[in-house]
């Protein structure tokens, strides 16, 4: 028997954001059973917590969608960092809150997370990108991509942003659209996406539709993510996509040297609004460091009997 918890991630409000299942003490669960459990939960991702290879680290984690394992993902990283901190502290959180640093071993490599736990509100975690976003040069036909997403050619592109492929470990076709009305039109046709989507890092790329602005006044960008190839029709918050977006923003917006703090909203069209916090540090014309963060709130806990 193994304890588990459900967290809503990239939100401080229960029943919003992106739900995540966290299975603790999972060393005795083999890979096939992990995949079956993730399929049973049927959430965008389920993360399994194991004993770290390095005793100085907090935990080794494995991340599964209902269809397959991922080397890295943002909302599981934020959610499991907060879940482990809350499980460790229990009722011993002072009124002033606690700041902690956790080191997670993921398939992509070590991921450092800064975590703040408070009695008065949801936890917040922010991780350093283990791999910076890079552009993958492939031929992409914007009209085909648009058709697979139910978008007209005139919906696609704003300013000098155009369709391109980026990856910070998970590949995404970045699809800029004129405004939120165009973003609201997007509806991925899975069979058509499988036909036109490019490959990146050995995987079929997912779709990330974005525009400037947002419903929330703090948002710099509004986004939607579709990943039918891994069993996710639409995702309410995608940290790995925000990570990939950092490279596209730097490239197309010509970010100046310095620190850029941005908020990306997602999940609005699904009724699960999410806010992803991103810091991009630039120097000598290049992105040097990116941090992705957000809140998470526990909404359920229980015990696996299998």
Can you describe what's shown?
Helix content is 20%, strand content 41%. An eight-stranded mixed β-barrel has the order 1-2-3-4-6-7-8-19. A two-stranded antiparallel sheet has the order 12-13. β7 and β8 form a beta hairpin. It is built from six helices and 19 strands. It has 306 residues and is α+β, with helices and mostly antiparallel strands. It is globular. α3 packs antiparallel against α5. The termini are close together. The model has no long low-confidence stretch (mean pLDDT 95).
Brief characterization of the structure:
The protein is α+β, with helices and mostly antiparallel strands.
List the helices and strands and how they pair.
Blueprint: E1 2-9, E2 18-23, H1 31-41, E3 45-50, E4 59-64, E5 69-70, H2 74-89, E6 98-106, E7 109-117, E8 123-128, E9 134-136, H3 142-148, E10 164-167, E11 171-176, H4 180-185, H5 190-196, E12 199-200, E13 203-204, E14 206-212, E15 221-227, E16 232-235, H6 239-253, E17 258-266, E18 274-283, E19 286-304
Parallel strand pairs: 2-3, 4-6, 11-14, 15-17
Antiparallel strand pairs: 1-2, 1-19, 3-4, 4-5, 6-7, 7-8, 8-19, 9-10, 10-11, 12-13, 14-15, 15-16, 17-18, 18-19
Helix pairs in contact: 3-5
> Which geometry do the CA atoms define?
globular
The number of E-state strands comes to 19
Our estimate of the beta-strand percent is: 35-45%
By secondary-structure content and strand pairing, the structural class works out as alpha+beta
Instruction: Strand order, main sheet: write it out.
Output: 1-2-3-4-6-7-8-19
Instruction: Give the helices and strands as they follow along the chain.
Output: EEHEEEHEEEEHEEHHEEEEEHEEE
Percent of residues in helices: 10-25%
Protein name: PhzF family phenazine biosynthesis protein
Pfam families: PhzC-PhzF
Family: Belongs to the PhzF family.
InterPro entries: Phenazine_PhzF-like (IPR003719)
